[in-house]
Amino acid sequence: MNTTVVFDTYWRFAAERLSMFYRRLADPWGPWTNDPILREFRFTNTYRAADRVSQYLISEVQYRSERSQEPKEVFFRTILFKIFNKVDTWEALEREFGLLTWKDFDFERADQLLSRLHAKGRKIYSAAYIMPPPPFGKTRKHSNHLALLNLMMTDRLPDRLRQAPDLQTVYETILGYPGLGRFLAFQYAIDLNYSTLLDFDESEFVVAGPGALDGISKCFKSTDGQSAEEIINWVTERQSDEFASRGIDFAGLFGRRLQPIDCQNLFCEISKYSRVAHPDVQGIADRKRIKQSYRRTALKLPQPRFPPRWGVSTNPADVIVNKIRSEEQLELL
Q1: DSSP letters along 17-44, please?
Q2: Based on the structure, what is the number of domains in the chain?
Q3: pTM value > 0.85
Q4: How far is Cα 191 from Cα 174, in angstroms, rounded to an integer?
Q5: What residues make up the domain containing 324?
Q6: What secondary structure does DSSP assign to 122-176, as a single string?
Q7: Which of 77, 114, 127, 205 has the lowest tally of Cβ within 10 angstroms?
């Protein structure tokens, strides 16, 4: 496969964006990078699970100590949160109803609350994903999504996913529901796999989203007929060699290697980053600018939390060590 200059930037971006995460954990004031593009625009974390919304999902929605770990409750909370993918919406629902549970959830009252928020001009959906309404005949998009969640629950989807032999089967089962395309079904499968509901290796399956397809088209002049998913797996396998060949001491996520889902996300992010860093390199999407600017806050990041079975240690000493390693990379990137 023939690569472009953007492929080199892919690895440097991955290292520096992760380094920003470590620097901010150790120092809430910053600055956290010398990269003018990373300072000006918003990019997700190198590791999907370390990003702000994923962290809220894992620490608050899935693993908060007061919450039930019954499979149907874990599934219900995860999908309810991910439909909107917005912390403010989840917290508005919990202010109204208390701890959200499938056992006590009132779909009609929730629909009414979301309708009131919408009428007040509140955004109840994140802009991260394109969320077309599933075809349930309701007037409001959120009403159709609540109907979809209700169908999943009454259809005993949590129990069926628990019996799935692998992550691909989980994905294919979710994909069978109306209103969910390939990319969104895969994202839901990964989100559910963070929880106690599932226990699959993230390395076993990946689906490339539209942003990743554009990023791949910018990184490679030719792909020798490889599919996007094959390229993502190839990049995942080669990560140690690629970082080493550029003199980058990549710490990983407290020692955890990049997984295919992370490399998929990185292709999406490099698609955006290269619009400014390499404006002469066109992708299949042919987009010219980055829409979301970064709004800096000096709030200290909470202690990160990851699925317990990953065995990832995030104690303060590890944070300091990784911050020091990241600072040593500044002149290389």
Answers
A1: HHHHHHHHHH-SS----S-HHHHHB---
A2: 2
A3: yes
A4: 12
A5: 2-52+206-332
A6: ---S-SSS--PPPSS--SSHHHHHHHHHHHHHHTTHHHHHHT-SSHHHHHHHHHT
A7: 127
pLDDT tens-digit readout, 171-212: 999 999 999 999 999 999 999 999 999 999 999 999 999 999
In a domain, 58, yes or no: no
Q: Which of 146, 167, 194 is the last residue of a domain?
A: 194
Same domain, 18 and 126: no
The 10s digit of each residue's pLDDT in 104-153 is 999 999 999 999 999 999 999 998 777 888 999 999 999 999 999 999 99
- Cα–Cα dist 213/108, whole Å: 39
Q: Rounded to whole angstroms, how far apart are CA atoms 245 and 306? A: 30
Torsion of CA 97, 102, 104, 106, to 10 degrees: 70
Query: Does the CA dihedral 160-163-167-169 come out positive or negative?
Result: negative
Please check whether residue 32 is in contact with residue 268, taking contact to mean a CB–CB distance below 8 angstroms: no
